[in-house]
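Deliverable D2.4 — example input (C-alpha cells):
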C-alpha cells in the first residue's frame, strides 16, 4: 500500500547518527533519530527532544572537560577518594551519566558552518537550519497536507525513520580517552517504515495538536514523517504512549513447551503520538520558512 509513498518520501528523510559514552566506561553506544527537509534551503524538522540533545552535546562535553581538569589536580591528594566523590557530585556525574555525544547528519549538506535551532514553545517540535553549506544532498522536499479535515479515525498512514542503529564506523580511542568517528565500518543504517490507522486526535485548549496512531513509533523514528499513500505529510512521529488494557494475569498456571509454569502479565497497547500537520505548518509560517502543500 505504501510502496510508492515511501519512494516519494525517502529522498528528503535523513538519519541523525549519534554515538554516546557514559561516565567510567569506554563502551561506545550507537543511537539514531530522524529528521526531514521541508525546502531547498536546508531547513529540516525533527522532535524538540531530539534537537535539545543535539544542542546540548557540546555542553555535556565541556562539563566533563572541566571535571577532568579538576580531577588531574587531585591525582596525588592523600584524600583522593573523598575529593573525587566531591568532584563527581559537583559536576553531577554518576555511573550512568552521559559525558560525550557526537552526531552526524548523513547525506544532508556537503559542509556545516553553523546550525540554528528553533524550538516550538509547547509541542515536541523543532526546526534545524543548516548554514554555510555549498550543496544540499537530499533530493526533494516534504509536501504537507493542505486540508487537515482529511485526518480522520480509521485512515491508514505510515511513518518512516531510522530506529535501528546498525552503523559501525566508530570507536573508543584510548590515547585520547574519547570516542570518535572512523572511516572503517558501515556508515549508514537502514530505514524502517511502520504503518497503522488513526485512532484519535489529541487536543489542547480546544486546538488539535496531535494524531494518535494504532501502532507505536519506534525508538529512532522520532522526527520522522507521518504520510499517506501519496506521500503527503500528515504529521511527525514524536513519542509512544502506553495504554494499560486491564487484562492482567496474576501468577497463573500455563503450559509452555509442554511444561507447567506460573506467569504474570500486564498487557499494554503501545500507540504512536504524532505532531499534527497544522501545528507544523503554523510553526514554519511563524518562522517565515518556505514549505509546500498539496
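Example output (designed residues):
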Amino acid at each position: 500500500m505504501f510502496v510508492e509513498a515511501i519512494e516519494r518520501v525517502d529522498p528528503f528523510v535523513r538519519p541523525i547518527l549519534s554515538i554516546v559514552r557514559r561516565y567510567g566506561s569506554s563502551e561506545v553506544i550507537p543511537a539514531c533519530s530522524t529528521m526531514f527537509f521541508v525546502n531547498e534551503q536546508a531547513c529540516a524538522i525533527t522532535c524538540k527532544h531530539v534537537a535539545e540533545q543535539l544542542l546540548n552535546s557540546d555542553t555535556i562535553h565541556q562539563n566533563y572537560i572541566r571535571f577532568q581538569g579538576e580531577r588531574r589536580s587531585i591525582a596525588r591528594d592523600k584524600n583522593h577518594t573523598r575529593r573525587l566523590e566531591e568532584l563527581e557530585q559537583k559536576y553531577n556525574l554518576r555511573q550512568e551519566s552521559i559525558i560525550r555525544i557526537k552526531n552526524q547528519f548523513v547525506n544532508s549538506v556537503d559542509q556545516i558552518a553553523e546550525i540554528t535551532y528553533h524550538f516550538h514553545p509547547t509541542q515536541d517540535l523543532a526546526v534545524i537550519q543548516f548554514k554555510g553549506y555549498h550543496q544540499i544532498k537530499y533530493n526533494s522536499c516534504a509536501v504537507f497536507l493542505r486540508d487537515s479535515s482529511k485526518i480522520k479515525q480509521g485512515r491508514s498512514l505510515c511513518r518512516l525513520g531510522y530506529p535501528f542503529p546498525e552503523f559501525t564506523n566508530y570507536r573508543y580511542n584510548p590515547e585520547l580517552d574519547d570516542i570518535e568517528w572512523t572511516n572503517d565500518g558501515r556508515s549508514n543504517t537502514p530505514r524502517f517504515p511502520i504503518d497503522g490507522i488513526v485512532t484519535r486526535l489529541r487536543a489542547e485548549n480546544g486546538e488539535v495538536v496531535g494524531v494518535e496512531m494504532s501502532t507505536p513509533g519506534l525508538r529512532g523514528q522520532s522526527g520522522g514523517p507521518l504520510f499517506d499513500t501519496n506521500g503527503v505529510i500528515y504529521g511527525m512521529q514524536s513519542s509512544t504512549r502506553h495504554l494499560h488494557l486491564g487484562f492482567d494475569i496474576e501468577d497463573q498456571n500455563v503450559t509452555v513447551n509442554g511444561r507447567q509454569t506460573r506467569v504474570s502479565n500486564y498487557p499494554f497497547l503501545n500507540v504512536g503520538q504524532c505532531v499534527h500537520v497544522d501545528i507544523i505548518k503554523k510553526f514554519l509560517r511563524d518562522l517565515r520558512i518556505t514549505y509546500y502543500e498539496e
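The chain has a mean pLDDT of 95.
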